[in-house]
Structures are given as C-alpha cells and as structure tokens.
Design goal:
CATH architecture of the largest domain: Sandwich
Bound molecules: copper (II) ion
CATH class of the largest domain: Mainly Beta
CATH superfamily of the largest domain: Cupredoxins -  blue copper proteins
Strand order of the largest sheet: 3-2-1-5-8
Shape: elongated
Distance between the termini: 62 Å
Strand content: 15-25%
Largest sheet: 5 strands, mixed
Oligomer: single chain
C-alpha cells in the first residue's frame, strides 16, 4: 500500500502533505493565552493539563482528517487521469476484489480505533474530578454571570460586561481590558490549584466556558452541572456564554483572574471583610503586574505603568 502511494505520488506532493500536517503545530505559537488574538487561526493557548490534552487530540484528529482528504483527492485525480476514456478504451469488468474490500473496511476501523483511544482517555480525565482545593458556584442570568465562593462564607461576585467607555478608562490606567470580554468584577482563583465549578442558571440555559481551561458546561435552571480546572499559569482568562440564551447572549463574558496563593488569600480576606474597594485595589495591582510580566515576556515596551 505505502509503496503504491509512493509510486503514484510525486515527491512534491509528499512534501506538501508533510508541510500541511506540520502546519497546525506551527500556527499554535501565535495563539492568545486567555483570549484570542486578531487573525488567530488555532485554539487559544492551553492553561490547564486537560486543555493541553485536548489540543493534542485536536491536532491528531486534524492530521488524520487532512491526510484522508489529501489521499482521496490524489486517488480521484489519479483515477480521472489514468482511467479516462482516451487512455483506457477497454474498461475492466472486475466487480469484486477481496483484498481491496477487506482493506477498505479494516483500515477505516483501525483509524477510528486510533482516534477512539485518546478520545476516551481525554473524556475519562475530564470527568475524573481530583479533590478540590476550591469550589466556586457559577450562576447564569440573562445576561450576566454571578459567582459564589461557598468555601469562604458564600460571598457573591456579579460580573457585568464593561462598556466601551469603561474599557477605555481601564486601558488608560494600563490595565489590559479587551473589548466585549472585560467585566467590572472578575472572579479570582489560585494558580496550580484544583478548582471545581458548580454551574446553574436562574432563568434560561447558559453555558460556562473558558477556552484556555478547556472548561465548557451548560448552566441549566433547576440543576447543578459541574466542571473543573487547574490553571498552571497566572493571568486573566476570558470566556463567554456558549449557549444561545437570548438578546444579550454575546455580552455576558466570564473573566477569571489566576493569581498566586498570597494574592488570593489577601483578596479573600478583603472580600470576607466586605471591603470591595480594597479587593478591587488588590486586583488592579495584580493586573498591572501581570501586564508588565507579559510585556517583558513578549519583549515589547512595557505598557504597565
Ligand atoms: Cu447566556
């Protein structure tokens, strides 16, 4: 089979196929962490072990899809060229070819098994919840998210999307605030800790999604669904409601700030003391620090201060 492919496929086509197969990996480098970048092609950068596994599975599936599409295309072109009326005036009367029939049944089965193994492994890992270090409750509303921290006295955070003027004001302070994703009050979780998210809704079905965490689960009224994540990187991670829920469906973003243990405890302290002003100050300071680290990492002039 391989020999046959090699015989039929010119070297340039093989090189092209290889380039296509390697392309997804190369494109990954330019993807945003926590939110997508203009012109981005691939998935947002992974920030949790599950997201990394999911991306590997996505790449594998893409390689299989592209390889099959190219193989079928080449096969069709070959047949059109080699067996057209002019070149092949007396058609073969073959109706059965046992080896070929077995091959085109068995090979697709093997391909499906190749896809199924990492798929089931990923599914199992997604639904195997490690012991939580923190549990938060996410409640969907038309059209904003509320989050509660039952481990810390059940205080409540309501996140409303920032208007363009509010975005401009925060950007002026040096706090990166992407339009349509930034909210007035983000939720805060510690880095490298297992966070369980219990998800429900007050009205219609919403969906709690944070792409870089590979977290996505429906928020269903009267029910509690759940997801979990373990963020390995500090920073701001954005998500959006991903279940068409009505008029302002596109304007109810989710914003998760991942911080160090120290900052998290400081912030929890302020929230428990009902000192929202101090909590905001802590987060603004962290936002500037994280923006600074990011700017240095990207070797760009710091926009932090
Ligand atoms: Cu919604």
């Amino acid at each position: 089979m391989l020999k046959w492919i090699r015989k039929c496929m010119p070297q340039t086509a093989l090189a092209g196929l290889l380039a296509l197969l390697l392309a997804p990996g190369a494109a990954m480098a330019a993807n945003g962490l926590g939110h997508s970048l203009p012109g981005q092609m691939g998935l947002q950068e992974a920030a949790t072990p599950i997201a990394r596994e999911l991306h590997a599975f996505y790449d594998l599936t893409n390689i299989v899809i592209i390889a099959i599409a190219i193989f079928v295309l080449i096969l069709m072109l070959y047949v059109m060229f080699r067996f057209n009326e002019k070149r092949n005036p007396t058609p073969s009367t073959t109706t059965h070819h046992t080896l070929l029939e077995v091959a085109w049944t068995v090979i697709p089965i093997l391909i499906l098994v190749l896809i199924a193994i990492p798929s089931f492994k990923l599914l199992m890992n997604q639904y195997t919840y490690p012991k939580p270090d923190l549990t938060i409750k996410a409640i969907g509303n038309a059209w904003f998210w509320e989050h509660e921290y039952p481990d810390y006295g059940n205080f409540n955070i309501t996140s409303n999307m920032l208007t363009d003027e509010e975005v401009a004001a925060r950007e002026q302070k040096g706090i990166p605030s992407p339009r349509l994703l930034s909210v007035d009050n983000e939720i805060v979780v510690p880095v490298n800790k297992v966070v369980h998210v219990l998800v429900t809704s007050n009205d219609v079905i919403h969906n709690w999604t944070v792409q870089s965490f590979a977290s996505k689960v429906d928020a269903v009224p009267g029910r509690i669904t759940s997801t979990w994540f373990q963020a390995e990187k500090e920073g701001m991670f954005y998500g959006q409601c991903s279940e068409l829920c009505g008029l302002n469906h596109a304007f109810m973003p989710i914003a998760v700030r991942v911080v160090s243990d120290g900052v998290f405890n400081e912030w929890i302290g302020a929230m428990q003391a009902k000192d929202r002003k101090k909590a905001r100050e802590i987060l603004d300071k962290v936002a500037l620090e994280q923006a600074g680290i990011k700017a240095v990492a990207e070797n760009a002039p710091s926009q932090a201060r």
